[in-house]
Amino acid sequence: MLGEGIIKGMVETAKNFFGSYFSAERLTTVEYPEQRIAPYEAARVFPFLVFDSKNHAGGTDWESGLRCVACQICEKECPPKCIFIEKSKDKKPDALGRLQFYPARFDIDISVCMSCQICVEVCPFEAIKMDTEFELSTEDRFGGLLLDRKQLAKSNQYYHQIHPAEATGVDAKLAAEKIKAHAKVKITDEAKTAAIAGAGA
Amino acid sequence: MSEMQSHSAILADKPQGWNRPAAIEPQNEGELLEVSMGPHHPSTHGVFRMDVALDGERVIRLKPVFGYLHRNHEKLAEGQSYLASMPYTDRLDYICPITNNWAYALAVEKLIGQEVPERAEYLRVILGELTRYQNHASSIGFLIQEMGASGTPLMYAFREREKILDLFEELTGARMMVNYMRFGGCRVDASPGWLDRTRKVVAGLSGFADEFDQLLKSNEILMARTQGVGVLRPELAVNAGVTGPMLRASGVNYDIRKVDGYGIYNRFNFRVPLGDHGDVYDRYMIRMLEMRESIEILNQALREIQPGPVMDPKAKIRGLRPKPGEAYGRIEAPKGELGFYLISDGGPNPYRYRVRPPSLINLTVLEDMCLGVNVADVVLIFGSVDIVLGEVDR
Lengths: 201, 394
Known about the structure:
The complex is a heterodimer. By secondary structure, chain A is of the alpha+beta class. Chain A has 7 helices and 8 strands, in the order H-E-H-H-E-E-E-E-H-E-E-H-E-H-H. Chain A has a 3-stranded mixed beta sheet. In chain A, strands 2-5-7 form a 3-stranded antiparallel beta sheet. A two-stranded antiparallel ribbon of chain A has the order 3-4. In chain A, helix 6 packs antiparallel against helix 7. Chain A is elongated, with a radius of gyration of 26 Å. The mean pLDDT of chain A is about 80. Helices cover about 45% and strands about 10% of the residues of chain B. Chain B is built from 16 helices and 8 strands. The two termini of chain B are about 35 Å apart. Chain B is α+β, with helices and mostly antiparallel strands. Chain B is globular and about 70 Å long. In chain B, the strands form 3 sheets. Chain B has a 3-stranded antiparallel beta sheet. In chain B, strands 6-7-8 form a 3-stranded antiparallel beta sheet. Mean pLDDT of chain B is about 85; it is low at about 1-5 and about 5-15. In chain B, helix 5 (about 120-145) runs antiparallel to helix 12 (about 280-305) and helix 5 runs antiparallel to helix 15 (about 375-385). Chain B has one domain: Orthogonal Bundle (Cytochrome-c3 Hydrogenase, chain B). At the A-B interface, helix 1 and helix 4 of A face helix 3, helix 6, helix 7 and helix 8 of B.
């Protein structure tokens, strides 16, 4: 019969239309600003710099706690080249007690960034991570989207908040590294005293 | 074996000289009307323009014009490391980024001789088939949208696509720009919870295919508009290098998943649907049937996947310097054969980086299919090619 296929299709449409009043599965949208879907833990938007608020230097501010040592690997690997780092002239001790550079300037142009998270992958110091904040509109197209290191710095607690499982793993890894580094320092100290003693004899 | 024979038979009886399509003589007296369709025509899937010469309603000449979305992908890739090109491949065919990642990873793995762990292969197949499913669903949605059924089928397809994109986001962190594969495996492992949710979504996919069939398959308007329209002869399809569902709709049995058996595809049982007529309706049906075969593969892969590493521990992520040489990695992307050709001169960047995009090469037969049809059917034939301009222009 001509028109049978159309009627069949209309039945399907009607099922979906009336079904959406009864079944939540057929009603898939939410009304965004009022209703929100929680982001997935793996969600990524733009990078931020992690700082330890209770850090080795005893400070609680973002500047002394930044994990970044300005090694510039992320700057080199960034596909669209949106990271700009200026290395410091002097060195400061890092969490493991080693003297390290720190970023005198660390800018990310988020109007260029494409959220690929390659910077996160290549960072050997767990210093840069991906944020989940996406409501970032601003009236200033150039200055407002060029984030400096103060705007980028976010605490480790915040990192725990947005990526709990991942952050716990990172903390465990850093703690293990710390223990290893301390053991090494001890050994070298002992070796030094032994060497001095040997020289004295 | 018979598959191969029929294939070579078509190759052998080729020579009709494929230079220009046979010219169509205007029937009416008077001037031809030249129409520029696009680049912002809503049916052109992006920014694509067709210069069409019309005699009344009939198409006499058709010239595709593309390049409006050119982003210099290949040259950019030659100026940066192998890893840095991976996120850019997401942006080629932005409907199915996973398969783009896969083809590029395959090419680099061939170049450096890298093995991939088994679990990573399974994850690649699972994600690749989910991608194929959502690409075919939305491409059918677009096709029906172009026929004038504005909204309904497309919205249903997108409702289903959303479930798959949610899985992508949960695993990779992004819905579309996934940047998931690495040379020697995948970036992150899938949790057992993710696999369970995927099984749940896959269980619902065949129900959606039924619903879509019910909605469209026997629709008289759809049949009247698509059957016998835009016929692509198998000889022409083979000679023009057309691949993917378009080639199979013309009846040529050529699926790189079967021919190459790349990854672990030779472990799975699936059929390759073939068309008889090579018209728009066949292309639509082939996509519907491939969606069902994808579900078959997904069920098998989700049953067989074993725990294990997803990344070869010896694999290097950054600082690759392959030995001088060349490699071509190709896969059966949802739109056809997607290949990446790389030449290394031993440096940290590829010396030459070339993409063989299925969309662009399938588009080259557009004029042949459109000559002599009504201008309203041009939109439909164009929609049945299933292109994404990000891949055509690169």
